[in-house]
Amino acid sequence: MEHTYSKNQGQHRLVINNRETMDVTGVLHVDSFDDEEVILETEQGLLAVRGEELYIKQLNLEKGELSISGLVLELAYSDDKRIRDRGKSIFERLFK
């Protein structure tokens, strides 16, 4: 399946080191976070990060940068704004 992004979307990069740290660029907004889930809006869509003992080490929205530490278990992207609906499982929110 091929997905084409419009040219007006910005750059986005995600780097995970040993599933323990994660650096993200192209971050527009952090919608919610706790020690098991971080939901953020990036230049390429919404991103849900699930894990254990997640901690936001650095957030700079002016530069669009985010650093997270903790055990990363899952990542899921969505273009659907309904992911922001709290109280439902991540998969219900992503695959509605």
Q: How many helical stretches?
A: 1
Approximate strand percentage: over 45%
What is the CA-based Rg, rounded? Answer: 13 Å
Domain module count: 1
Q: Report the sheet with the most strands, covering strand number, pairing sense and barrel closure.
A: 6 strands, antiparallel
End-to-end distance, in Å? 19 Å
Tell me, briefly, the overall form: globular
Mean pLDDT: 84
- CATH fold field value: Immunoglobulin-like
**CATH architecture descriptor text:** Sandwich
Q: Strands across the major sheet, in which order? A: 1-2-6-5-4-3
Low-confidence residue ranges: 1-7
| Proportion of helical residues | under 10%
Structural class of the helix and strand makeup?
A: mainly beta
Secondary structure tally: strands: 6
CATH classification class: Mainly Beta
The SSE string, one letter per element, is EEEEEEH
How would you summarize the topology of this molecule?
Elements: E1 13-17, E2 21-25, E3 27-33, E4 37-42, E5 45-60, E6 65-78, H1 90-94
Antiparallel strand pairs: 1-2, 2-6, 3-4, 4-5, 5-6
Description:
The protein has one helix at residues 90-94; strands at residues 13-17, 21-25, 27-33, 37-42, 45-60, 65-78. The protein is mostly beta strands and 96 residues long. The protein has a single domain (13-81, 89-93), classed as Immunoglobulin-like (Sandwich).
